[in-house]
Amino acid sequence: MSGIAAAGAAVKADAYGIGAERVVRVLAAAGCSDFFVAHWSEVPALLPHIPAARIAVLHGPVNRDEAQFARSTGARPVLNSLTQVQRWSESGGGPCHVMIDTGMSRLGIEWSQVADPAIAALDIDICLSHLASADEDSPQNADQLHRFEQVRRKVSARRYSLANSAGIALGSAYHGDLTRPGIALYGGVVRPEFAGVIVPVARPEAAVVQVRNLEPGDKVGYNALFCASKSMRVGILSIGYADGYLRCWTGTGQFLWQGRRVPVLGRVSMDLTIVDLTDLPDCGEGDWLAADYDLPAAAAQSGLSQYELLTIMGQRFSRQTGS
Ligand SMILES: *Cc1c(COP(=O)(O)O)cnc(C)c1O
């Protein structure tokens, strides 16, 4: 959907919780060659898998140590202010990227400052900006595009990049030379254009660690939010809010087992979640259930964003290629 533009990949935050090392290997094999992380601390794990010069660090060098780290590893800083421009030049400089703020008031050099001679002196690979409202049909999109076109005329760079996932759906005018999808690579559907095109790529699964039988009147979980009104069979799953399966799924979440729906009973706790196995007598200890994590639906139901649903996934999952 990026047309003739290349597609890079935002792999920050452990590739949105999916597992950055696996993701960069898969995407590099698929032909992706530009990768974006937020922190310098995210760089070392990626170095064995992709060339350092293809790792862009969005937060830029906020002190001399970080500028030095960039020079010694070869990872490319995204310079976000004239102070960072100066720091990079003083550290010895070299190829870099530059972020221009075209109207989000977040990271980036103000678009009115782009004629500064310190910018002209840089060796800029990618000149980028970031869209604030691409997931909506907002006039802000055209405003930012218009400003970015003016920036392009003033900042000399090898490549220009504006669109995140949602921006890709806004059309070729937004694509520049390089798009920077994140959420869409991980199954997020952030615009109607992606419905039916983007499919889920990851789902959390948890094992049944205990099965128990309940009598009418038996209480379930913290604060007894569920009470059995009949004889029931329940499974205790090894997943909880410490794994990113948040308490908002208390009494409302669903798991799936062999295509059957398995409702959550009562409160989600830190490490455990109780589900109703009454209608699934063959499901037992050691069986794996998948959380029903259709991202757009799960976001609508939970009030969380699709981004949060992925990035909150905890460190206790073994991240495996699915069956
Ligand atoms: C996170 C990020 C992206 C990716 O955004 P998605 O909405 O996940 O596609 C692209 N560019 C920048 C600067 C980002 O911070």
CATH superfamily of the largest domain: Alanine racemase
CATH top level of the largest domain is Alpha Beta
Shape annotation: elongated
Report Rg: 23 Å
The total count of helices amounts to 9
CATH topology value of the largest domain: TIM Barrel
> How many domain modules?
2
Overall pLDDT score: 97
Summing up helix and strand content along with how strands pair, one would put the structural category as alpha/beta
Question: Unreliable segments (pLDDT under 50, ≥5 consecutive)?
Answer: none
- Bound ligands: pyridoxal-5'-phosphate
Main β-sheet, in a few words? Answer: 8 strands, parallel
Secondary-structure element series? EEHHEEHEHEEHEHEHEEEEEEEEEHH
Looking at the overall shape, the CATH architecture of the largest domain is Alpha-Beta Barrel
Q: Beta-strand percentage? A: 15-25%
Number of strands: 18
Estimated helix fraction: 10-25%
How would you explain this protein's 3D organization?
With 323 residues, the chain is α/β, with parallel strands linked by helices. The protein has 2 domains: 6-194, Alpha-Beta Barrel (TIM Barrel), CATH 3.20.20.10; 205-292, Beta Barrel (Lyase, Ornithine Decarboxylase, Chain A, domain 1). It is 22% helix and 22% strand. The protein contains 9 helices and 18 strands. Strands 2, 3, 4, 5, 6, 7, 8 and 9 form an 8-stranded parallel β-sheet that branches. A 6-stranded antiparallel β-sheet has the order 16-15-18-11-14-17, with no helix packed on it. Strands 1-10 form a two-stranded parallel ribbon. The longest helix has 16 residues, at 139-154. It is elongated, with a radius of gyration of 23 Å. The model has no long low-confidence stretch (mean pLDDT 97). Bound molecules: pyridoxal-5'-phosphate. Pyridoxal-5'-phosphate (PLP) is lined by residues 10, 12, 58, 130, 164-166, 180-184.
